[in-house]
Amino acid sequence: MAVHGRFDLHTHSTVSDGTEAPGAVVRQAARASLAGLALTDHDSTAGWADAISAAIDEGVGLLPGIELSTRSGWRSVHMLGYLIDPDEPGLLAETGRIRASRRDRARRIVDSIGVDYPITWDDVVAQTAPGATVGRPHIADALVALGIEPDRSAAFAGVLHPRRGYIEPHHAPSPAEGVALIRAAGGVPVLAHPGATREEWVIPAEDVAALVDAGLFGIEVDHPENTRGGGRVAADLARRFGLPITGSSDYHGTGKPNRLGDRTTAPEVVDAIIAEGSGTPPILP
Ligand code: AMP
Ligand code: FE
Ligand code: FE
Ligand code: ZN
User: Fold this and answer.
1) Alpha carbon distance 282, 198 (integer Å)
2) What are phi and psi of 219, to 5 degrees?
3) Does the pLDDT value for residue 1 go beyond 80?
């Protein structure tokens, strides 16, 4: 069955660091006249049920997905996984480890910021939906609520900038392990936003070659946060390895300037993802 129209294949809800409930994100996609979307919360599938029922109500397409946190040395690498089986034990165990480590890490970061600014863990909990994957955005929201920073983006450029010395990494599998975990769960792995960084920091081609060997499907080439040089290198990588390209907004509600449907993916590529995914069926109108 072929899809008609374009899909926004990367969005976040309150299940991670977006500001709208999963069903609200889906309803917005319907209002924006998108053919469909993917819900890809960080390291969690807890928003799927709400998103699926909204997609059925609205008659909009939905690829249930995830954005898996992986890391290669100092480089944080995000791996989108579409149509995974949310109960597959390997992926379930790994996302559980990542979320627990994110929570411990966020507490340590807040303790360390708390030495210099009047912020406590309770301030962050107050900004985080119960059970959500916690990250720097929730600490940013607490800093904003306390009047220490004016908004999320300013917090990332200010107190939460790695240069300030408060930030530390959390546990994450390697990118190739991430690809393998998504494939083992019947999912379709797409390298998220490699171009959203300075040209000289884009993931090297030899690393992408290893991801292709592990089963990488495609690359998210079209992304609102691409730098000029980074976007070009990302497009070159997709061409060089003959990989399908996706486009997405990486919508976070009011948490980021990215607008839903600002970038989208061609229907042929959505069809190819649906053909390769076996962990969970898509919702198609
Ligand atoms: P973390 O994974 O906890 O290190 O936080 C990184 C996440 O913060 C990314 O996945 C983005 O979703 C979000 N983020 C990064 N930069 C910004 C920004 N300037 N404004 C809002 N959110 C951001
Ligand atoms: Fe995010
Ligand atoms: Fe990301
Ligand atoms: Zn994202």
Assistant:
1) 34
2) -130, 135
3) no
**115 C-alpha to center of ligand 4: Å?**
30
Please report the atom of ligand 1 found closest to the CA of residue 167. Answer: 4
224 CA from centroid of ligand 2 (Å) = 13
Summarised one tens digit per residue, pLDDT across range 159-212 is 999 999 999 999 999 999 999 999 999 999 999 999 999 999 999 999 999 999
Domain ranges of the chain: 7-95+177-276, 104-164
Closest ligand 1 atom to 16 CA: 12
Nearest-atom index, ligand 1, CA of 250: 12
Closest residue (by CA) to atom 3 of ligand 1?
Answer: 135
Confidence class for position 246, pLDDT limits 50, 70, 90 = very high
Tens of pLDDT, residue by residue over 134-161, are 999 999 999 999 999 999 999 999 999 9
pLDDT at residue 108 in the model = 98
How distant is the alpha carbon of residue 31 from its chain centre? 22
Topology alike, domains 7-95+177-276 and 104-164: no
Q: Which CATH class is domain 104-164?
A: mainly alpha
Threshold 0.85, pTM exceeds: yes
- Band (13; pLDDT cuts 50, 70, 90): very high
CATH number of this structure's domain 7-95+177-276: 3.20.20.140
Q: How far is the C-alpha of 23 from the C-alpha of 263, rounded, in Å?
A: 20
Q: In what order do the strands lie in the sheet with 75-82?
A: 7-11, 36-39, 61-72, 75-82, 188-191, 218-222, 245-247
Are residues 83 and 274 in contact, defined by beta-carbon separation less than 8 angstroms? yes
Strand, helix or coil at 134?
Answer: coil
Kindly identify the ligand whose nearest atom is closest to the C-alpha of 258: 1
Using the mean position of ligand 4's atoms as its centre, give its distance from the Cα of residue 159 in Å. Answer: 21
